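Exercise 7.
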Amino acid sequence: MKVIDHINNAKKTLFTFEILPPLKGQNIQHIYNNIDPLMEFKPPFINVTYHREELIYKRLESGLLEPKVVKKRPGTVGICAALMNKYHVDPVPHILCGGFTKEDTENALIDLDFLGIENVLALRGDSMKNETYFVPEKGGHNFAHELVSQIQGMNEGEYLDEELQNKSQTNFSIGVAGYPEKHFEATSLNMDIRYLKEKVEAGADYIVTQLFFDNKKYFEFVKKCREAGITCPIIPGIKPIATKKHLTVIPHQFFVDIPDELALEVIKCKDNKAVRQVGVEWAIQQSKELLDFGVPVLHYYSMGKSDNIYNVAKELF
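Solution. The predicted structure, written as tokens, is:
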């Protein structure tokens, strides 16, 4: 079933989460071990991230550095198929602009369609670590709204090769990302929402937000989106803080603020076990307030571990 249909048919707020493919060399049991406890809360869909290639440098015996392109977390499509088979839930694979030509994108969508997967989350993706700014693949998309347009085009039977005969239509529900504290490259939140509206107008059915810790920023973001004419569901993304290191890593990696009240509670903790409990309690209060606001879905970023998400969900669902 499509994500948008799950939302429209739901009589209460849904519980969902996002998982990362395991590192290359690990098996899928690592994923199952983290998902199994969360199935108690009946998630109708599960997001599966896609990780583009990275450029690393290997030192040769001569002392010179040899560049090598690697993909550390392969397996998004395979994991989606496994989730459908094992849990009978709808997977939502992430599709990126970065690292894909338009033909690569078309072929990936064909594979997903063959598997009966009806949902994708369309993202521009980050730049490679050796790039100052995002650089699209030659023959690829520069912006997420272009990617959404290609997916929507396939939903209407449009393929890159216009001479194909008997073309079938795909049937994807398309999600896109929103940023309550604005995308770090946007000049302002208002401009960022203009770009978000382009993605919705190109064919997106719903929005999933970047993680945030201050609900006021989400509420203001939703208000601005509605004023801009964006009417589709806006799903809040939540991540419980789990380590003291997160106080510096999360703002740097995700370009979001951590409220002083939360930061001070984390700083007072004697160890990361205590930090994890603080993170759970904060996420519970966040979630309760969002439930009162009437959000369609509470979406949690697990980052590979699920015990804290379980402890949040058992208080709410």
